[in-house]
Design brief:
By secondary structure, the chain is α/β, with parallel strands linked by helices. The chain contains six helices and 19 strands. The protein binds flavin-adenine dinucleotide.
Length: 312
């Protein structure tokens, strides 16, 4: 292995978590490379407006992603547009195999592969993303104050987000494909006592309709009767599943039952020198500011880890 093939830190994923880790790593003078298989910025690169990243007002996700990438590069972060195909935990050095076949080694490895929302796959969903279609009530609920929204799903997240939206909006329809909810009993009790929420049972969304660039209604089909109707709504919040991008996680690294990586307060996994940050790791909420903070923590902890390793 050449010196060029080994790093202090390798970062997998160039979303807010990975870019923040890259920035802090370079400021700590660590030899660092970041691999991104898609768009730098991750999920925010496809978000329309970001209004809740502290200190940055009125910015599109794309522009915020570009700023984060520019700032990290300004400290000398090496960024490669390449997919990481696999990751292997080692003793002194961990290794990554890239899509093009190269194998690189690093003392610390920061996994920042993020997560993916499950989509409905109906007409109008991609077209109106950011113009009425959302996968995040904390991010976008604010834009629907005193409006009517439909929430799709029946699990804990859908019910929690419906309750959150009920505080902001005029009316929330919870559209669920079955006649019972999967959400926990406590959440269901809170749901029943919220007068603004109406549940539409046994029903699926077939289409999201819009006019002049914004959502105006959802076309629904009752699975028992096959009847269809249009429900007027200004927004559609979809919570039918969110999965961590954990395909790369080595077997030795512990994950919870939902596949999120378990870390300590330094964002380090149970394998020394392997860190997991952002939406990939188990935590209370997924937001840009949290992903960026994780990147900072993991980079500072990696610096400490690399220093100790080099002293051995
Ligand atoms: C539509 C939408 C709107 C949102 N709006 C907001 C908002 O307004 N405010 C807010 O705070 N949060 C918002 N969020 C949530 C926020 O985007 C996430 O919490 C945040 O992006 C998580 O950052 P991350 O870096 O952990 O992961 P991600 O953003 O998911 O980035 C992970 C990156 O890793 C890359 N990757 C994955 N596997 C590999 C691999 N094998 N090799 C190389 N690269 C890989 C991916 O391509 C991706 O770019 C929104 C999310 C969505 C989906």
């Amino acid at each position: 292995m050449n010196h060029e093939d080994s790093y202090d830190v390798i970062i997998v994923g160039g979303g807010p978590a990975g870019l923040s880790a890259g920035l802090y790593s370079k400021r700590a003078a660590l030899k660092t490379v970041l691999f991104e298989k898609g768009l730098l910025g991750g999920q925010i690169a496809i978000s329309k407006d970001v209004d809740n990243y502290p200190g940055v007002e009125g910015i599109t996700g794309f522009d915020l992603a570009e700023r984060m990438a520019r700032q990290a590069r300004s400290f000398g972060l090496e960024v490669e547009q390449e997919e990481v195909a696999s990751v292997a935990a080692g003793g002194a050095m961990h290794s990554v195999r890239l899509g093009d076949g190269r194998v690189l080694k690093s003392i610390a490895l920061i996994l920042a592969a993020g997560g993916s929302v499950r989509k409905l796959g109906v007409p109008g969903e991609s077209e109106y993303l950011g113009s009425g279609v959302s996968y995040c009530a904390t991010c976008d609920g604010f834009f629907f104050r005193d409006k009517t929204v439909a929430v799709v799903g029946g699990g804990d997240t859908a019910v929690e987000e419906a309750l959150y939206l009920a505080k902001l909006t005029r009316k929330v329809y919870l559209v669920h494909r079955k006649d019972t909810l999967r959400a926990g009993r406590l959440l269901q009790a809170r749901l029943r006592s919220e007068p603004k929420i109406e549940i539409i049972w046994d029903t699926v969304v077939r289409q999201i309709r819009g006019a002049r660039g914004a959502v105006v209604s959802v076309s629904l089909e009752n699975l028992r009767t096959a009847e269809t109707h249009d429900l007027p709504a200004d927004g559609v919040f979809i919570f039918i599943g969110y999965s961590p991008n954990n395909q790369l996680i080595p077997d030795e690294v512990r994950m919870n039952e939902r596949g999120f990586v378990i870390t300590d307060d330094r964002c380090e996994t149970n394998v020394p020198g392997i860190f997991a940050i952002g939406d990939l790791r188990q935590k209370f909420a997924n937001q840009i500011v949290i992903a960026a903070a994780d990147g900072c923590v993991a980079a500072l902890a990696s610096a400490h880890y690399v220093e100790l390793r080099k002293e051995r």
